[in-house]
Design goal:
The protein is of the alpha/beta class. It has 8 helices and 7 strands; from the N terminus they run βββαβααααβαααββ. Helix content is 36%, strand content 19%.
Length: 240
Amino acid sequence: MERAPDTNPGLVAGVDGCPAGWVCVMAQVAEPGRLVLAEVVAVADFAAVLRRTQACAAVAVDIPIGLSADGRREADFEARRRLGPRRSSVFPAPPRFVLKATDYEAANSTSKSRFGRGLQKQTFNIVPKIREADASMTPAMQDSVVESHPEVCFWALGGEQHLMHPKRTRQGQAERMRLLESVYGDPVRRLAPPKGAARDDLYDACVLAWTASRVAAGTAVHLPNEPQRDERGLRMEIVY
């Protein structure tokens, strides 16, 4: 699905995976760095995400887009370097062969025999969502639909300061809420997650929408500066 030519230049979206599928936060850019919430919704699959955000000038998604043959991507290394003590939140993207796998033990064994290292279970658990995104994305779409990472976005939003607490803790949610208020103001505090999404999913999607506004404005940072492309021609990059 290609993007619609008649996009709204001020409308952006952040998208994060959740138990119900994907949580989408759409927002209107009021001024640089300030957003007004437009819609918060959970949708079932990635194709529905693209339909729902068709009018958006930019969309930032927390899912690997572009997969190397061996699972090593410079984008992941660069993101971990920036996060320092929170580097473990950046799961390594899986090698492309894993998209065809249905059994973790078999995929893990294959990874060990081919590359000398196993496959993280957390990574394998999101393979269905990676498969959805891979089936829908094209290289041309990456000009407006980008891979991002919420922890890197929060780090950037906070002046490149490391967050102190994990996102699912009460302290971590309060820490992230303070940063989101600098973008959305008080209304973000009254937001409730849509059915099938957790509060941390909602906060992640909100900060991803902030990154999407930077993509639309041409001020986003791409990791690495000159990304490699995978066998489908997709750029292997993380944007914030």
